[in-house]
Specification:
single chain, 105 residues, 15% helix, alpha+beta
């Protein structure tokens, strides 16, 4: 997230995200948000990663994420899903969705 050039390369031209908050994010809005800087990115833990190949050039990635505070406590548990598409420049993130969940169970 801190590397604008890397984000620019990874986000598909038609990227959209349905954020955990319910906000619809476009590629331009996502890049602008991260370019603005602001507060430091939280430490995030991801687990339960699973990938399914839907076609030669399309993959579905699902996982659970949580923010981790300085004492190691986890919060903001979220189920996440991403569609990755292989393009001439490599794999790009085409769609992402975050859905809040109550806890880590």
């Amino acid at each position: 997230r801190a590397n604008r050039a890397r984000m620019d390369a990874l986000l598909h031209a038609d990227f959209i995200e349905f954020g955990r908050s319910g906000t619809l994010w476009t590629r331009a809005a996502t890049l602008a948000e991260f370019a603005a800087g602001g507060e430091a990115a939280p430490r995030i833990l991801a687990d339960r990663l699973a990938m399914q190949r839907l076609a030669d050039d399309l993959a579905l990635l699902t996982y659970r994420s949580a923010h981790v505070d300085g004492d190691g406590r986890r919060s903001r548990f979220t189920w996440r899903s991403s569609l990755w598409q292989r393009m001439s420049a490599g794999w790009q993130l085409r769609f992402h969705q975050g859905t809040p969940t109550e806890d880590g169970t």
